[in-house]
Every structure is written in C-alpha cells, then in structure tokens.
Amino acid sequence: MSIFDNSKKGRKGVKLPMIDVDTKIEFSNKLLRENKAKLPELSELDVVRHFTRLSNKNFSIDKNFYPLGSCTMKYNPKIEEKVASLESFNAVHPHLILNDLSEDIQGSLEIISKSEELFCEMTGMDAFTLTPQAGAHGEMTGIMLIHAYHQNKGNKKRYVIVPDSSHGTNPATASMVGYEVITIKSDKSGDMNINEFKEKMSDEVAAVMLTVPNTLGIFNPKIKEICDIAHSHDALMYYDGANLNAILGVVRPGDIGFDVTHLNLHKTFATPHGGGGPGSGPVGVKEFLKPFLPNLQVEKKDGEYGFKKVSEQSIGRISPFFGNYMVTLRALVYILILGKEGLLNVSKKAVLNANYIRVKLKEYYDMPYDMPCMHECVLSAASLLKEHKVRALDIAKYLLDFGLHAPTVYFPLIVKEAIMIEPTETENKEDIDYFCKKMIDAVTLAKQNPTVFHDLPKTLPVSRPDETKAARELDICQC
Ligand SMILES: *Cc1c(COP(=O)(O)O)cnc(C)c1O
Fold it and tell me: Which residues constitute the domain of residue 332?
C-alpha cells in the first residue's frame, strides 16, 4: 500500500519551527514549481507503522540466511554502526578536505592512512587509493592505472584478457577504458584454460583480470605461472578482490604476482550493502604504479597528517572527496576488532561452511565441478530441469517461503541452471543445516509434484513478478 493511501488532509506528524528566513526572496522561474508538491499528510504513528511494515517485508541479513554467491552477504557487526554514528566521524564536513583544512581532521585522515596501511599488509601491495566507490569503480580505476602505465612506457596495447567465468564488470571495465576483450574458456576443472591463454597472450595484451578464487569458488593452482607468462609480455595482472574473504590471512595477491587489486570493503569486511550500495572499492598497487594513483592521498609528515601533492602522472580525481569514507571506517573497525587471528578465522570458516554445504547437497544436485571449493560452491539444477521441468529459479523461489534468501542463480554464466551458494563464516551449523534440508526438500518435491513450483513463493507480498517488466517499468507502489 502506498503511503499516499493513508493520507488525510490536515493530519500532521511534525511541527515545523517558525520560519526565520526572508520568504520574500524572488527566485528565478526555473526554480519554482507551478504546482505545489503533492505530499502525504500523516501522523507520526502512521509514518512509523508504514516504514516498519515495509522493513518487515524486506529480506535482510539481520532476519534471514542470505547465501547470495559472489555478493558475500555476511553479518555486519553492530559495533561498526555504533562507531560510524559517532559525531566526530559523521559530522566531518567533506569540504574540510577540499579546502585543505587538514589540521581540523587529523583523526579522519588517520583513519584513511591506517586503513591504507592495513590493506597493504593484507594484500601484499605497496600503496592504496581509497577513493573508488565500489568494486566496479575500483576495477575501472585499476585498469586506468594500467593504461597510464602502458602509455607512459610507450607500450602499444589493445587487449585485456578475462576468463569466461569472470564477473560481468571485468569485461565491461576493460572496454570502458578502451580495450578489446579476449575471453578465455574455462577447462574441466573450472580454471582458465592455460593452453588457450598461452595462445592468445601477446605483446598487445595490456592486462589479465582474474578473480582468485574465481566465481566457481575454485583457486587456480597455475596462478603463478599465469602471472609469469603475462609479465613476460609486459601485461599487468589485475586481481579482482571480491573473493578475498576466501584467502584472507592465507595468501596475498601481491605475493603471487598481481600488480593491481581492488577490494570490495562492503563484501569482505562486512559493511551493510545491498540494493546497490553503498560500497567501497579501494585499489592497491605495486610500487612501480604509485605515480599514477588518483588524486587525494594522505601522507604523514612531521607527525601531522596532510594531503600529498600527487605526481603529474596521476590519473587525476576519480570521485568526489574520499569516496565512501564511512564504509572505510566500518571496514577498519571490523579489521581491528577481529585482528590477525580473527581474520584468518574468517577465511577458514567461510571455506569450511561452503564445503559442508557442497558435500551435503552433492547427491541431490548436479555438481559441475566436483572437488573441494573455497568460500562458495556452485551446483546446477540441469537434471531437475530435464527430468522434472523444475529450474534453478524455481528452487530459488521455493526457499523464500521458508525465510531463506535465494542463492545466486544463473551465474556464473558458464554453468547451466547454476545455483551459487556462499554461506559465509557468520552462519551457525543449525541455520546451515536448515538451509540444506530445504534444498533437499525442494528436490523431493520436484520429483513428486513439480507443478507446485510455478506459483511459489506463496507467503511473500510479491510472488512472481514479470522481471523484465519490473526492470523497465519500475513501480514500487505496487507492493
Ligand atoms: C561484486 C563483484 C564485483 C563488483 O563489485 P561491486 O562492489 O558490486 O561494484 C566484481 N567482481 C566480482 C567477482 C564480484 O563478486
């Protein structure tokens, strides 16, 4: 129901203070609306109930198991929110940065500097920029840095190599920066086909973008060899850090040959995200790429934090201010609270939980890559579709009625009827068991009565929207 439906003329929830500015100021016509804005008129209680009802309709990590593969929907500790809500952090005006009033924001600059230092330590990189505002934005920044490097050296480069299991943002980024994309097929074990890679590799390749472990949850054992081959052609290695939570504290991208990496702070370091944001995608580089880093860098000089004068080779500013500074702050709190041992535990448990699910479900679903996985596992409903006309989408919808968020379906694109599950380390055994039970129940139901799937879910406000129409003609008042 729309909030306008409850509106009653004259009903009020707030009392606005007396106007204390001159209301007779003449505005140019452009700024004036001809008609008064139509606003709902409601009491405070109406508004509270409206938004509470809406929030209850929402699936969220605070209410539901959320195994959305690749997106890492783990629990976001409340202490992060507490720190982020402190006035000393959230009342800092961004223009203090622009106007170079660094003496007034020493604490905020220390947060940035400390975060950079820890990200370097965790990834084996030499410097970080915190300004990119999401993983995809980080990718673009990273490929722009690589582009600047090649231009500076006079290298003639045309291509970026990605495997066919890569996230769509990888090829999209490469082409936005002006490169042509070469896609390499995956082999039987889910890794980028090394022979095809060797064939396609040439001096015209600017970069190879890899996610390790990849979106199938598989760690490529030939990663070092791939990095060496790329480097022998002066192609740089780009590490898509979306899956860093699988190797945190175990392997560092910088140690195995990567030159540039982005982190998805909102995924790996548990800051609330979903519905498109907010995110943060800091980018780390090796020493030789430092001169190209974007504008706005912090440095410590004589015990004081200040802004570093960037080199002339810098790619310039890629976002206003310091990106999503509050996401950095939350990530820093998460890192400091867990410490080294805690972070290592994150990756160990994330991997353990994914493998537990994989083994529990392997006799019920197709396993396109039947081997130990990292932090996520990919199943397939291809046989269910063939034998019972029940698709991955039907399984996803079935789970919703049991308070379980659907796993990622139909990604990675190379797996037919893919169901990609990432339980994360924050779930307990009972909840994981409940999820597995429902996944198994779904298979039993598919065999007995496959047609019931067609109008599931039954308990949610919206059942089966026409997804194309919903995307093209979004009308959020319908629910
Ligand atoms: C999420 C994700 C991205 C994009 O990150 P955003 O922060 O959503 O922009 C890129 N690559 C992989 C593998 C991802 O899972």
Answer: 79-337
The residue assigned the tokens 């008129």 is: 41
Tell me how far the alpha carbon of residue 242 lies from the centroid of ligand 1, in angstroms. Answer: 6
Q: In whole angstroms, what is the distance from residue 409 CA to residue 415 CA?
A: 10
Phi first, then psi, for residue 379 (nearest 5°) are -105, 175
pTM: 0.91
The Cβ of residue 321 has, within 10 Å, a number of other Cβ atoms equal to 15
pLDDT tens sequence across 4-42 = 888 999 998 888 899 888 888 777 776 666 777 788 999
Distance 167 CA to ligand 1 centre (A): 7
Residue nearest to atom 5 of ligand 1 (CA): 135
Q: What is the CATH number of the domain that holds 367?
A: 3.90.1150.10
> Considering its fold, how many domains does the chain have in total?
2
Same domain, 247 and 368: no
